[in-house]
Amino acid sequence: MSQTAPSLLRSLATSFGGSPWARQGARLAPGPLAGRSYSSDEASETGSRQIAYTNRKLAAELAQTNEYLTHAKATALVNQTIELLIAALKRGEAVSLKPLGTLKVAYVGPRRRFDISARQHMLTPGYMKGNLTLGKDMKEHLKGLEPSQVPGS
């Protein structure tokens, strides 16, 4: 990868029409979640608390965009995020999964550690509340995964 991890995360967030720091709500385009809307206010507050608690700046809040967010785009964002995490593991960087909370990807200082908060019910119709969430299976798969266990490493 020619880009650094933080810039990749930032471009993931912005490639879907919004600033990674967007605070606006988003409406869902026609698809599995058609007709439902959600606000990112709750996610923003969670992010603010996390920033205050960790004293770190989030590099991206992947699901907070200004564009209509389809199920396919949301899934693509999650998949690309997972790929970045796997790549980080391959490079021997630390990846930690917290058991609960909205999905956040934080780029942490010179040690290049990715922190993720994971939650069950990934992309359950009608459930989205401003942030994507990781499914339980993926959370369990990534938790405690060593770089040597990553396929292709």
UniProtKB/TrEMBL annotation:
SUPFAM superfamilies: IHF-like DNA-binding proteins. Pfam families: Bac_DNA_binding (PF00216). It comes from the Eukaryota. One of its GO terms (molecular function) is DNA binding. This is Uncharacterized protein.
